[in-house]
Amino acid sequence: MLSRIAESLFWIGRYVERADDTARILDVHTQRLVEDPWIDEQRACANLMALMGAPCPDEEADTERVLATLAFDRTSPSSITGALSAARENARGAREVLSAEIWESLNVTHNALPQQRTMARRYGPHSLFRFVRERSAMVFGLADATMSRDESWLFLILGRSLERVDMTARMLSTRILAGDAAPSWTLVLRSTGAYEPYLRTYRGAVNSSRAAEFLLLDRLFPRSVFASLEQAEGCLAELERANVREGHRIGVAGEAHRIVGRARTMLEFMQTDEILAKLPTRLDELQRTCSLASEAVTNRFFTEQAPQIWVPEGAL
Amino acid sequence: MADLFDGYPLGQQWDEMFAAPGQPRPPYTGLFSSLQPMSGEELAARADVLSQTYRDAGVTFAHAGEEQPFPLDIVPRVIGAEEWSLIERGVAQRVHALEAFLADVYGAGQVFADRVVPRSVVTTSAHFHRAAHGLVPPNGVRVHVAGIDLVRDEAGDFRVLEDNLRSPSGVSYVLTNRVAMSQVLPELFADHRIQPVSDYPARLLAALKASAPTGVVDPTVVLLTPGVYNSAYFEHALLARQMGIELVEGRDLVCSGGQVSMRTTDGQQRVDVIYRRIDDDFLDPVHFRSDSVIGCAGVLNAARAGRVTIANAVGNGVADDKLLYTWVPDLIRYYLAEEPVLANADTYRLDDVDAAEWVLANLDQLVLKPVDGSGGKGIVIGPRADQRTLEELAVKVRASPRDWIAQKPIGLSTSPTLINGRIAPRHVDLRPFAINDGSDVWVLPGGLTRVALPEGELVVNSSQGGGSKDTWVISPPRPVAEPAPEHDVTRIEFTTADLPAEPPGQDPGPANDNAIAQSQQQQQLKDPVPRNLGPSLRTGPDGGSSSGATGASAC
Amino acid sequence: MTQSQSQGGQFQSQGPARVAGDRWRLQIVHRSQLRYGGPVRSSYNEARMTPENSSRQTTLRSRVEIEPTATVHAYRDYWGSTVTAFDTHGPHTELVVRATSVVEAGPEPHLPDPVDWAGLAAPDVLDRFGEMLRPTPLTAMDDEVVAAARAAVGDAGPREAGQLVCRFVYDRIEYLTGSTNVKTNAMQAWEKGKGVCQDISHVSVGLLRALGLPARYVSGYLHPKPQAPIGQAVTGESHAWVEWWDGGWSGFDPTNVVEIGSRHVTLARGRDYADVPPLKGIFSGPKSEGSKVTVEVTRLA
Looking at chain A, which residue has its C-alpha nearest residue B227? Predict the structure, then answer.
């Protein structure tokens, strides 16, 4: 398929997942601020912004700022609004490949954001986060139901999986790295939708190493880092099989496949204690894996777009 | 309840449907008898459904920057078989002549040496692209798709208003109009034998493939679009989808070493034919506008080298120039040695001082068209214009007479159109589409009928808020001797004897007492042998009917 | 220094050359180097550096070499010029095009009889040469200047008038490099009173047309020395001059006020410079740091 379209689908997957997970993280965060009377709001906000890759000076950190940067900033692809706008723009150019329903779903979501924002100001942000989660679920649900499992679907899911690895690692970081301003494990599990599955799996109270293990390594829970890496790997293997070229046949996996495979293997075969002992490093590596893999995918499949600006020389 | 067509006013202009009040012309008799008993409200209700069908399907047109559903009038326009045959021949003739002209103008220039057309008419045309000179397309075709605009004059004769040889648009609406109408008015379709339009995409694809560079087996064809923000994007996407070809933008293409490829996830894939819906000026920054970001640098030289085909060819605009239009009947005689089947509208050039003066003296009775205009812009209809407009026009015409032509206003024919629940006459034109595959020019039966919705309005162009009608060409009756052409059909015939004796029942799901009881009862009733044996060990009060629940059969 | 050592890549001489008395055999090496401000990904170019064949000139050999390597496609354009089209891909910081040609050139052997002014105004002449009579943005001249040129011509016939116009321009524009650039138009150069051969030729062509003479801008090379020793490589130049139609195409060099002869090698002709640039193209990347052009001419015979 056209590189441009493949790249659009890849980024739609990433952006929608990003909006979804950001909404989850922010939901947990704002709920905490409401529920916990002893919390240091400034510190919690500053930590969150840092973890989301948008650090701000401590004095300026407050919920207002968090929401402005991570929820409402149209221009930033790290904010919910920015990500959903970008997803829609990409979908516009890929309409012929996406089903009409998916396009409409993205379009409707994007168009409803201003109104959702107004409501959030009046009634609190929870309704906005819930809206975003539901709409994201709808987009991926429609993709699941209406897209053929061809390259277009593979790129979409690849984008989603890589983003999920990155975001789940960040979610874990909000607990691990925030010290005493950290949310409880219960809240973290809830934010990834993992609370009930965790309870069913472990039948017991929330235990920090088990919770981390669950989110990192559980093979059956689809939002775990391991499951996401596995899915990304699967997509890459399929894509490579479909794009076998001379001299790239057996044994030579693509760079992206290598990067993702390495991360997955590390999680699979390392002892859990080992992983948990150096958790902050591992989480950082996982985020790095996502961006390196994304770059490798771009280099491999989305051959550079044409230079758009031409400079005339010689004549007039 | 009044009949639908009561009070339908007939004036000086030719009406498509009525020769006299209440007397439909022969092609319309069927339509008349079907529609006449309907009330305006009923027809309006159907029209609403039609509009909704279009909205749901997302058939839109970008007007004033907004996407709006394309306005389709519910009353179709009908053309009889014989009349169509004339149009078909006339359109094909015109395309052949213009093809020959283009080959000549970008080649030997014999038409100048023989003094048929002054060279300056061509060399001063803004669309004469010297960069395309000497470029010979692989199968000689430069006008793969043409849209020849026709109107009917007061006498009922079709006249050519304009040729469109660059990127004529509107065929997507022809296709969608037909589908929508057949869904909303199926009974009308059952009553008429209307020639289908649905094979247009297949024919276009075949023609494009036939135009590929020599020696290419199974050519790759792409449709080059300016992108989603272009007003005709809907058509680009529809045609690409129905032809099964890739829809590309300039940035998806790269030209290297004279070969054009598209960037795919599987590397660069060679492109053989580019059906481009981009103006010449933006197509190749090497030869045309260097600030164009929607074209593909190097594509023209690749076409010159014979490595790729550009459809429609670069430079066709010199032949649909409004000034050249006045010479087309001469071109038909010169290249084809035939008389034109379809006449031009009466048109006057302003090339000499006397002609220019005469036109300036009669501005209020003529229609003035700018040679370089499109989409109906800049046209001044003398009889309708106010004094100030005429004065401004006179200044412009005096300054550069070569940029204008003058026509006697034609009273465009009218067609019954549903306006606010009543049927009223509105002016229409016709754009048939022709496809040239190198050996034949095929004309799509019907084409796009555009209707000017405001009362009395003569400019029908869709970019100025017009609407359209489904256009029906009635099939001629098939000669009896010839059986209907049969495609390869595999016959599959069954009789009840082929059915299995006991078709498998549906899976009832998890155990359920009722079901078991009923199925066992069935078994019992089926057993034909009466259970009237001798004294048995157990005989219930009913003697054998319901007590056999545990399986009474002893055999 | 023998000629085979003076420049690389030239053609081997083929034994004693025989040329007609008033013709010279010349070798031209034309090198055009474009330097970019940084690596450039792709460029698409056209070179018009191949001399023509005509009644006064025969091109024995011509070769165009390009660095970095490029696939080349040659064709003849609308004006009859031989074009070498090529594109380059892959990062590069400079583009070098070198054209080497061996040409025999002389004066026009035979010119048809001239027509008079009435003949020039005939409709079929106007029709045939329409493109060469119309002013272009680079060559259009103001009415006052045209009037002055007309006065300078007096009641001379078309053929004489052509030369008179050229001399008129020569007298008024001083040859000076650096005062104008490739985008300067005729009126700008006229007002400055200074220019190079491109400007002087544009002005001449503009005036010739205004007076009713269809006129062409010619791009080519000039061997600068009227008494050129054989075998000596000389720095020549990319040159321009004019032709007008007066019953046949007459040429003249308004920059040097000489007839077109064995020192002039014709590359291409058109309405003005924009139709015949020796090298033009587009590239993607940082702005270029300018181009360096060298022309080396050697009289071989």
Answer: A93
